[in-house]
Fold each of these.
Amino acid sequence: MARTVRFALVLVAALGAMMAVAAENRVDLAGIYLCEGVNPDGTPYKGLVEITPTADAYQVRWTMSEQSTNGIGIFKGGVLAVSYFGGTPGVAVYRVDKGRLLGDWTMGDSKGQLYSETLTKLPKQLRDRLKREGPAALRAS
């Protein structure tokens, strides 16, 4: 009897773990996001972020004004961790929250300070317009 109970508990735990992995795999991070955050000097910034799946990782490209920064990320346990180089090495960590990615980032020269950033996925129609028209599509919306 005890063996049957232990087997049932192990089976329930395994099924729970498989369901969590399946739910994580259903998160579609690919797309273009509106990026809003706070600079080290306290001023707000906005831009676009494109996340593209590549094998088991993600290519991430931030575009602010006319400058772009590229990074590479891994999505595990509901968290997207991204390493990037924007003049100095940096890292950003995001968690999925109701269709947005809520994150913190830091750079090598920031003396350990963390800064916040929110990525909000753009609707498919606007993403398609951005691919055709570029940033001018945002001003027209």
Amino acid sequence: MAKDDRLIYLISMTQLVLRTRINTLLADAGLQVTLPQATVLFLLTEKDCRMMSELGRVIGVDNSAMTGLVDRLEMAGLVRREAKRDDRRALLIRITPEGREKAGKAAKIIRGVNEKIQEGFEAGQIETLKEVLRGVLEKLKLPPTGRGFPARKEPGRVARPEPACGAGLRDASPVKSK
């Protein structure tokens, strides 16, 4: 019998099944968020008022995909966009109380899936799996822009620290609050 070396197929199918299972559980719980949307909520729970570009970098999606995610979360009342007063082009995303509540419920569901994945395996096997997956991620890691091109540097531009959440901001939501 031939050795099965279809790692890409196995990883892809595992990711598809995992995402489908989690999305089904989230829907069955009435949360009305997808795994990528829940991921954005988790990040905002960890540190609120993040720029959309920062969120996109962390979860590995481009600006247009991030805009779509935030649009859907905003329409559901789970996040709000806020523009900096000194730079109206810069939008920060703030989680709402309802978004925090749904993030907490989604985290419980995802923890349950994580526990289910580990059932029947010894601790050493789980550690080996994590080590292998981290190794694959490191070997295939994209550059900072995520597109195979180096990040563009702007000469003479000095990064300024972000204001505290809510400081110097104004509401920039195109969606009316409920």
Amino acid sequence: MRTKIIFSEKCLHYGQYHIEGPERIRKTAEILKKQGYEFLASEPASEDDLLRAHDLEYVWNVRKGLVEDPDTPAYDNIFEFARLSAGGAILAAKIGGFSIMRPPGHHAGRNGAALGVYTRGFCYFNNVAIAVKYLDRPTLILDVDGHHGNGTQEIFLGDEKVMYVSLHRHPNYPGTGAVSERNCLNFPLSPDCGDEIYIQTLDKALNLVNVEKFEVVAVSAGFDTHNGDLASLGLTEKGYAEIGKRIAGLKKHAFFVLEGGYQGENVGKDINTLLKSYENPKLHKASQKRNSSHSHRIRDLGQTMH
């Protein structure tokens, strides 16, 4: 069955001149529509949904617009835009879809800026965290954005039902994620390391996870790792195809939530490449065989490589 895309044109109606602007999503949606994907409309997350991952005072501050920092403007009506994006993530989680809504979310912690970082990196509510909390099932979060998801780590650190795995460029914003901690496995990578090193590292990361403990795979799907983008790790469409194979090989209910990726044409093409690989059993058969051969090396939840 083909993955459905979660989208609402309402998310294009703010932040016209910011790097995290609507054009990247507009172009992404255009490309995916041409590829024949079915689109479903996002509905706003409820306040109760938001409070699964965030403190009440922070949610109220977003509602009142008291959240501006050097990276993250307090746009008019940003509360409504942000909860619509969170709602897109919830719908994606329920149906195994891919939300391409904005704003992104993985830098937002329980009270906004997370793990000592002084900005929220274009994020207001942590969409993937809200969706994982909504499902309330044992979940592996795989963060393939080029920046470490400090907000996601803060929210889930020590949570026995969740493992967080992040591959990200380092040193880079937000400066966190240099080492692993408890149930949060971090894999810092050098700028422009390329497809081969990235996929080798992803395989290493997944071999540390006891996949059988989890029912769901939640993907923080950032494409700023694309060669030349904001957090470039030198990835090409070939790399995204391999990521799709690895996710398919886990054979779990999976959903995807867009994070970064600021060259809209590349983002649309990369999502299509990843999903085609994820959905095609012939493409990921070899990945399944490889994962099986490494099963004797799987380690328990919470064990780290550092």
Amino acid sequence: MKLKFPLSRNEIFFAAVYFVQAAVGISALAEFLFTRNELKFSFVQLGILAALPTISWSVKPIYGFLTDLVPIGGYRRRPYLHITPLITIISWLYIWQFADSFVSFVIPSMIASVGMGFTDVICDGLVVQQSDEKTAGRYQSICWGALTIGAIVTTFLSGLLLGRELVSIRGMFFLTAMMPLITFAMSFFVKERKISEVSEEKVHQEINRKYIYSAFIAFFLTALIIYPREGQNMELISIGVIGIWFVWFAFYFKHLMDLKVIGKGLFVAAIFVFLWRFTPSFGAPWQDFMLNKVGIDQETYGYFGVVSYLGWLIGSVLFAKWLDKKNLKKVLLWTILISAVLGMSQLTVTKVEWANLIGMNPIIKYIGAAIATPVYLVAHGKNFWSVLMAYPGIVHLNMFLDFFLGILYMVSFLALLKFVALSTPKNLEGTNFAVFASIMNFGLVFGSVSGGMIYEHIQNGLYGISGLAITVWLGAITSLFALIALPWIRTEHMAHEKTT
């Protein structure tokens, strides 16, 4: 949909929330450098660090229920929009000033994510409340456009500011703390109708409050078990974190099934979503390899992320133009298979000699350089091409792979989101979509923790195969597990399946 300007006050707020969601990623590179190189986190600890903030997003339905249950001053949304950005700001300011250990970094990071997740849920609620047949597409265009712009801009700045030593590592945490000020300022311009009738103040009785209370208890137990003590075993802690939230989510999911909020068909769909997203994550080992082993400078590493996001843009266009109308089950099947095969291409990067040789192939080199041209034109001006041509082959190869893997990631992600959205029963879209989003996030939690635990044992290699190469094999194989549930997925009830 073509956007018309000017935007309304609420539309500007929607854009601000989604922009900030991406903008807090400006500290992602600094976070790795600080935790791995300065605080000497193990890969198990890095896995937990990646998982705990994701847990905060895995319980998003709770935030929605809380705003419904406890209106403030007659408003369900706006007062929370004033409070939640401040939670994120204070948490990152604490990290900026005081973080010097595992707990003093991880706990504030998790609390900051609660603030971000809460703000996102409230924003989504406002979007849904104000959406109709004419505005739904416009709102989604605004939200995802702002998210993409935020990701590209801040990822670019992350590498640039650190690589050129314009901002220190801790200084990046201060910049991150400043980002939610945008949302906080815009929240005062949000329009919301005040609750005027007693009937509107009734709480939603369908969801038992004990699941809200138990979520807070789970957060407390998580903080308790990761608190440092003598003889602490980080692997047992990882299992404990997964166990706490698996038990909570299993009972919560069963509760929703008992209430007929979700049925058996959706349960199968949930299993499929979880299996697709639970692939062990090895992001930290790859960062360690590129930055500390290969010696890629921080600025160039930041530009890898920008190139990947450019691939996201292309992938979203491809999906909207050609794949959106195709049989969804076939799209899911082929994206899983192609993702596994293309993911194996990363094996070429695990040996620097191979990567340099392949990357200097004229086809790979010049396609990689052409892909990166917009980024380097902004960063280096008229000297951009000479900078690109001076790189070793591994940089060109990584640019090439990141771009095309980014395209595939976005195609598969949009197919997954469409599947989730169309699998929800009528009149229960909001609740079910939030539940599915939580399942996807919980799959990522499992992937982060399991990835850290696995790599801690295989980082030195097994049977002559490097630890990094093993991560590629594991990622490809586990991504195929979702095929187990695919035959039981039913899409015939979906409107678009009748015409293709």
